Amino acid sequence: MKTSLLFWGALAVFLGAALASDYENEEEERIIVDNKCKCAKVTSRFVPSKDNPQENVLERNIRIIVPLKSKQNITDPTSPLRTTFVYRMSELCKQCEPMEVELTDRIVTAEPSNNCTSTDACYTYDRNKCYTTTFPFLYGGEIKTVRAALTPASCYAD
Fold first, then answer.
1. For this UniProt entry, which residues form the secretion signal (predicted)?
2. Which end of the chain has the smaller Cβ count within 10 Å, N or C?
């Protein structure tokens, strides 16, 4: 139990440091998460406070695009439409690769999360991955099973 609490505490500190550090230009908007699988993008920037204009506050913008024609199984065109979309910020913001974080006067390499295997479903196609499906095709009075690319640009070389 203590190990679990220690891990989550360290993760919270890491994410806080990673998400709020390294702002040279306060007007610049930083991309924190750009998850193409879940169609979600999280950005942040410092803006003047409404209460005290001399003080800056961190503003987060969360953009979620809900694909209305998304299938429950995106690799099967005959599956029913997806009606439930689940977005967990802890899952979206999970870092699976080591990254360098500047803490006060030194640079520290932050270790990735140890839970990077994702079983969550994608809500849209990963355009870099080849998705195929099979379907029955009637040709010359004979039904043949044909394999078709759902994302042709990533399945075939130029």
1. 1-20
2. C
